[in-house]
Structure to design on (317 residues):
């Protein structure tokens, strides 16, 4: 039998294949409090921990776990946005915001929260502070949902307006989170790499790395979008569900490798360690929220005891 190439998982699952407009979040958890946070991908390392899973064959033994480091400087709440029938009806702004943010967003409203009663939902307009870690000057701006009923949401939003929010105020070690990020951009690629189609026989006409057929011609009279063709690949918004947070800390001596992370440098602020890899290159914004695919066994688990975090140089030989 001829050898066939197994298609990649992304063959036709996502369409259209266009550049992402930003890190958007479509679904939010209903848990009380702030529903998410954001940080910047620093890189990857590994740690040695004692396996504490009940049914694991290596229970009680030291195991190797790859982790992603996300640096999370404190967020700030710039304003509260009120919605009715999914439309913005009002906005209440903080008394003072960073200069870099004033250039991008007009925050002139000074209405009192007591004046706004007829609303269905509200969200907090938050922004990052990458200047604190020397990454860039321009902050990233986005909305964050709040869990609870209307009164609880309003009370919580008023308490954090204009104040700094730390990642330890929103998440705990042992929690599962949903990661929202944009993948690496790879430019224009051929159909073999882009869709994972099989490479044709060496005596094939015209090309080996092209599709074997352009589809039927009886009905539509054109080449359908489903036919694998060359085009732009990468820089797509992706969501990974139920990723375990192994550690939350602000001790940079425990995580910074010799020479720093490649194309990033040293971690200087609060950070989290997420089990496994996440999409996107270093320095890119990563948004992570409370999980929406609820599992009673994954609400809050006991974190395995970390014996060692690798600080070896990532620079190579």
């Amino acid at each position: 039998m001829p050898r066939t190439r197994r298609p990649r998982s992304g063959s036709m699952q996502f369409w259209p294949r266009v550049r992402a407009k930003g890190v958007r979040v479509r679904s939010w958890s209903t848990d009380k409090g702030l529903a998410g946070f954001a940080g910047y991908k620093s890189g990857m390392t590994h740690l040695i921990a004692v396996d504490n899973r009940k049914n694991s064959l290596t229970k009680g033994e030291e195991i190797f776990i790859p982790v992603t480091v996300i640096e999370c400087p404190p967020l700030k709440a710039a304003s509260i946005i009120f919605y009715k029938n999914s439309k913005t009806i009002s906005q209440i702004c903080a008394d003072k915001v960073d200069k870099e943010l004033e250039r991008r967003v007009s925050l002139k409203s000074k209405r009192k929260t007591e004046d706004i009663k007829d609303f269905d939902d509200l969200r907090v307009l938050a922004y990052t502070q990458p200047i604190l870690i020397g990454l860039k000057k321009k902050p990233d701006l986005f909305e964050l949902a709040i869990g609870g009923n209307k009164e609880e949401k309003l009370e919580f939003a008023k308490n954090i307006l204009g104040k700094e929010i730390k990642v330890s105020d929103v998440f705990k070690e042992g929690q599962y989170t949903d990661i929202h990020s944009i993948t690496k951009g790879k430019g224009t690629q051929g159909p073999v790499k882009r869709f994972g189609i099989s490479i044709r026989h060496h005596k094939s006409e015209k090309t080996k790395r092209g599709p074997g057929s352009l589809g039927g011609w009886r009905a539509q009279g054109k080449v359908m979008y489903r036919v694998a063709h060359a085009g732009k690949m990468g820089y797509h918004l992706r969501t990974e569900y139920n990723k375990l947070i192994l550690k939350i800390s602000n001790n940079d001596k425990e995580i910074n490798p010799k020479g720093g992370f490649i194309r990033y440098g040293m971690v200087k602020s609060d950070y989290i360690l997420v089990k496994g890899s996440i999409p996107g290159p270093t320095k890119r914004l990563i948004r992570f929220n409370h999980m929406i695919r609820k599992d009673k066994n994954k609400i809050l688990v006991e974190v395995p005891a970390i014996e060692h975090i690798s600080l070896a140089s990532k620079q190579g030989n």
